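Hi P.,

Sorry for the delay on this. The queue was packed all week, but I finally got your sequence through. Input first:
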Amino acid sequence: MFVDECVIKASAGDGGRGCVSFRREKYEPWGGPNGGDGGAGGDIVLLGSHDTNNLVDYKFKPHWKGGRGEHGMGKDCNGKEGRDAELRLPLGTIVTDVATGKVVAELILDGQRVVLCKGGNGGWGNTHFKTSTNRAPNRANPGQPGERGEFRLVLKSIADVGLVGFPNAGKSSLTNAITKAHPKMAAYPFTTLHPQIGVIEFKNEIQGDRRLLLADIPGLIEGASENRGLGHRFLRHVERCALLLLIVDMAGNDGRDPREDYRQLLNELKLYDAALLKKPRLVAANKMDLPEAAANLAKFRRRYKVDALEISCLEGTGLEKLKSELLRRVAAFRRKEKVSPAAAA
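Then the structure:
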């Protein structure tokens, strides 16, 4: 089961209360105060992890609590701090406070730690209240309550390439062919029901091995941006991609027109978020092994002056060239990303 959005309730631990105690030993019947402090409550901590790509654990376990701090004890013994509650979240998770609508955290790096709710401080023991005029204070502070709140978790996958296309265009077949992911393939629409993240590996003995992450989202249909079909709620998974790979069934199966498919794909992306059209994009002209594909590709290129690489997922032709082009374009985008902030400064 794939879950990319859920709501959790988080409560950090309360601090332990301070202790009222006095030193009582042989020959010391009127010793001074020795009450220890209460321990701090445990925090709610978010941890970015590349070992998970799903929020399913938090859908079925929405309540999270930090440990309560121990109360202070006599003989100047402080209470133990409460245990932190650590939530391991997939990279690309955005955390929003439900009450205010404000984004409070965004996890994009492996190992990134964010304290979502701070545990309450422990109360002071009576030792802290001794003064020159009050040598035996009978007072201690209670522990402070921990922070708490309701938060929405939304996953926007972090990938280098976003694969977009209509049902039956060959997205799952392409993902199977060039990555280590193995989504379901079949001759009917909507075999992909949730986003798949695959790894494209490149072997290079001189420059070292490299890899790209490819996000395959469920097939779009016309009106996807208006909440129709399966793809509408998954379009956010291509927002962070460096490159959009639009796969088009160039054979025009089921009476489809590849030129109209491409126009509708661009329109759905624009309606969802116009910024997506500003991203670099590449067209994969699939099913070039079929006889109708060559004539359709010629018509497509006359209408659209875009780069369209010819591939056949069935026969495996053109895939190595496609992989090389993806690597080149993503690398160029990443270099530009690094230069832009410096240039702006």
